[in-house]
Amino acid sequence: MKRTLLFVTSYPPRECGIATFAQDLVNAMNKNFAGNLQIEIAALEEAGNAANVIQPPVSYTVNPFDIDNCIDFAQQINENDNIDLVCFEHEFGLYGGEYGHNLLAMLSLLDKPFIVRFHTVLPYPDLKCMKVVSLISELAAKVIVMTRSSAELLCRVYRVPSDKIAHVPHGTHAHIVEDIPSLKKQYQLEGKMVLSTFGLLSENKGIETGIRAMKEIVKQYPDAIYLVLGKTHPVVCAREGEAYRNSLELLVKELNLENNVRFVNAYLSLKTLLDYLSLTDIYLFTSKDPHQAVSGTFVYAMSAGCAVISTSFVQATEMLEDGAGCLVDFNNPEQLASAALQLLGNPELRQQMSQSAIEKTRSSIWENVALTHMSIISEILAEDKILPNLPPPYLDHIDRMTDEFGMLQFSKHDVPDPEYGYTLDDNARALIAMCMYSTELRPTTFVNSLCRKYIDFIGYCQKPSGKFQNYVDIQGQFSPMNGEVNLEDSNGRAVWALGYTMAYHQHLPFETVQEVLSRFRQCFHWIPEVHSPRAIAFIIKGLYYFLQYKPGGRAAELLKNLASKLYSYYQGEADDAWHWYESSLTYGNAVLPEAMMMAYHVTGVDAWRKTAEDSLTFLCSKTFTDSHMKVISNKTWYHRDTQQPPEEGGEQSIEVAYTMLALNTFYNITKNNSYLEKMRLAFSWYLGNNHLKQLVCNPLTYGCYDGLEKNNINQNQGAESTVCYLIARLLMEQWNKHKYVTTRQKNLEPARLGFN
């Protein structure tokens, strides 16, 4: 059911921080939940200014300084049956009356459920302020704040129940610029060390502190430049004109810093702002207000990877711990200069702070903030959670991770790390993903070129015996690790990839198909020797797909023999309480029941189908709840007779993708819709339906994070996680083809995915 949400907030073209915040949040929610959510805006008018022209998404204007207009607006909203929930952005200066008392009058008459977000929570309120804030909180269905300190103040000082408060951090923009020198050249900053600050100018910004610090900085770094980005705050400009800016420009002249301080007197577009932040070496935040709760400019700088030096306001003390930045005293240019000089002279420390700042803010990208808001809205309306629309299956990060030789194994964040070279495992999975891409979407010359690289890499790893090596260093040499670990599973994955390629070979040149066929047949010699359950399962999958290319023969015989062996493993381990092939659930578990179901499909052996169904049901009982998938942790695995509750964290993309592959196979063979439903639920893990309530896929790089830990997401985006995510995403193309309507049962319908 499509819901309508009304935001009551300042909104562009009005120029203020909350207007920008609201626009960014609305854009993120529209992007992620289009088709499931209608968002309208009630724009708050500025004191003394005429109302803005009403045009989408603005549906209403409100004069918050006119108590009668506030009351009329509340009645108007009550009479609109289409509005399901209202979200108020609160800052004391936005509403008329003492401490914004007009808002309280409006809320007391409102019949709709509403959320209020306090952008500021005063730590030492007088009785009137405490009463207004407490009453607003009492009327609200939920109160949102953006720092832990604000949440603690609401509980301790204003006596707001903790279960009514939601801490949702200020959203941030993820932005990647790979060529910083070119960007600096574009903005006439070539060869310069850039310090910057941005925001609507007013005296409480403390810009003079940064300018005075530059006097010392330029003694050692004469080419350093301080950018003061942003126009004067409209309210300040209306009250006193450009007096503050003029005083800053005069200070620059007095200190002879005309070549080292540049004012950019404009309200910057988002793209221009992110460009400036990307080229910034050090960001200076010099606010004079120790009680300032939150700053969008501050978190935007962190998310852009700036090394940050900040005065010790509330949010900075929370965010810059653990080496994510530097804290300095208020109005202290000497401290600021000293900290800046230390960073300018230590590129490694700047880089360390940059990475730490990115990691601290990646959980608060606007997509995650939108996801959290949708979860809160669903909770208030007592509805099933609606998850974001499917992200596009772009190949940007696949391309980034692939060089001329093959797919690299690891990355540092989103940057490929050649130190650990390549693996057969990753290139085999990548070949499967590219074949799926050509089948589910469309074959292209680019995708075919990637297929060619991965096929060549697999061929490079194949020995004269037909077996494969797994580890290859960046120089193309086989690593000693190949002799230190069991490579059966890796060999099995190679067979799976080659067999899958033969089944979906139509987009490949004839010569390539013949090469894959030759390499596949070379494996027949060693396949009977395999003992690892997973290697057997991978090989069964490869043989199953190969039989779609060429039925019968040696491949069918090998599949039957391997299935008998895997079935015997199950018979040796399973009992009434443990329906599995081994004594533990470890990694890649779903491939085992999937292989048994494929074997049944080829041979018609009913015992193998029952084993497949029983073991998949058992696995799902350990990895699914009614509302989400809980992946087996790679920190502890899951052992027979375990008495310990499952540990949080250690969840990886590969488990979700392999589970979805198995569920897809089971659906295709049995046509049982419950497998489709679980497949959809499994994919929602990537979209934030997990214990951290965060995206595991990266909407900026189109890669996938390496793991879901107990309290954070592993920010690296290596080959395994990214390829497995792409496989899972392509499986959702098949899910779309089989969409169906389920009967709602006992209010336990799993989370719904949104689709455009």
From TrEMBL:
Pfam families: Glyco_transf_4, Glycos_transf_1. It comes from the Bacteria. Residues 183-359 form the Glycosyl transferase family domain. The keyword Transferase applies. The keyword NAD does not apply. Keywords: Transferase. InterPro entries: 6-hairpin_glycosidase_sf, Glyco_trans_1, Glyco_trans_4-like_N. GO terms for biological process: carbohydrate metabolic process. Residues 17-172 form the Glycosyltransferase subfamily 4-like N-terminal domain. One of its GO terms (molecular function) is glycosyltransferase activity. PANTHER family: BLL5144 PROTEIN, GLYCOSYLTRANSFERASE. This is Glycosyltransferase involved in cell wall biosynthesis.
